[in-house]
Structure to design on (319 residues):
């Protein structure tokens, strides 16, 4: 049953901070509450970083390399503000072109999740999970193949912190991966203070809505299993008979698995090469989820840390 889970007081959730413990590295200086405004170049050589802290602007030079790790939204923004991007886009804001990188900010991938909800009888105790979601994930395939997993469904109840639905309810949230739609990140001005324009272009490829419908039907099917009947009062989302495409377009939401906007590749159109160096420049690498050439079959955190590990090895071994 739902509430037969005990918590071992000796266990704790592992995080990137507890794994890497940055304070043990004495050669690292962390500048907080600062916003990077642009990378400074001498020709195509990256020579420094400009940043703002409070009301003051600072510039710092580098002896070796700059590693840009601002994520799939902010990394292309910083590159474009620094003059690396599609020259037509940079020209809109009179930004001097360092490298005409037409794919900077393109190829934005994200996963979507859909929601299948069921009310729980009032006489049933609703569990409260320490990590909000139930400690279970259901994997599936929109093509009914063991070789092509593209559904990752979380399970939870209405006691989820911040959840706006009814408390006495349980939910399946299929996360649909490997969607074909691609979005963009572009500038709205030449000011670092302005957020970039993010167009995820969700469901713009016709096959994606079909994948979402298959994933949603899987959640509905599981939630209506006879084994869950003691815990199920009725299906509340989507209501039986609802047009699923309309429901998905109205309620599907981001999983914040943004990646791909500074695609890595062997081809000259890729933003970074296989050593994570920004093409057309020297002394500048990108190490974050923006370099993913394709979406992955998982959450993005572990893969991003793997790239960081590999990137650090590449830098250490560089001549």
């Amino acid at each position: 049953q739902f509430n037969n889970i005990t918590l071992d007081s000796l266990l704790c959730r592992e995080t990137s901070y507890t794994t890497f413990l940055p304070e043990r590295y004495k050669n690292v200086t962390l500048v907080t509450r600062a916003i990077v405004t642009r990378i400074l170049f001498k020709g195509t050589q990256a020579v420094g970083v400009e940043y703002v802290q409070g009301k003051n602007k600072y510039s710092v030079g580098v002896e070796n390399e700059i590693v840009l790790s601002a994520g799939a939204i902010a990394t292309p923004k910083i590159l474009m503000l620094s003059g690396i991007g599609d020259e037509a886009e940079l020209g809109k804001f009179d930004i001097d072109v360092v490298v005409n990188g037409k794919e900077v900010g393109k190829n934005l991938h994200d996963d979507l999740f859909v929601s299948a909800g069921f009310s729980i009888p009032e006489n049933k105790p609703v569990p409260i999970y320490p990590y909000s979601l139930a400690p279970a994930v259901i994997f599936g395939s929109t093509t009914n193949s063991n070789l092509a997993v593209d559904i990752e469904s979380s399970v939870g109840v209405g006691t989820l912190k911040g959840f706006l639905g009814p408390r006495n309810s349980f939910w399946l949230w299929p996360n649909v991966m490997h969607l074909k739609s691609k979005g963009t990140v572009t500038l709205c001005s030449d000011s670092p203070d302005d957020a970039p324009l993010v167009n995820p272009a969700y469901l713009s490829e016709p096959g994606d809505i079909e994948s979402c419908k298959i994933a949603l039907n899987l959640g509905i099917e599981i939630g209506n299993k006879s084994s869950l009947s003691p815990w199920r009062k009725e299906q509340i989302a989507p209501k039986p008979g609802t047009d699923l495409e309309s429901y998905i377009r109205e309620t599907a939401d981001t999983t914040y698995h943004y990646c791909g906007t500074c695609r890595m590749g062997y081809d000259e159109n890729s933003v970074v090469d296989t050593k994570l160096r920004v093409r057309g420049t020297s002394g500048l690498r990108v190490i974050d989820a923006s370099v993913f050439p394709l979406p992955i079959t998982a959450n993005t955190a572990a893969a991003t840390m793997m790239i960081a590990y590999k990137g650090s090895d590449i830098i250490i071994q560089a001549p």
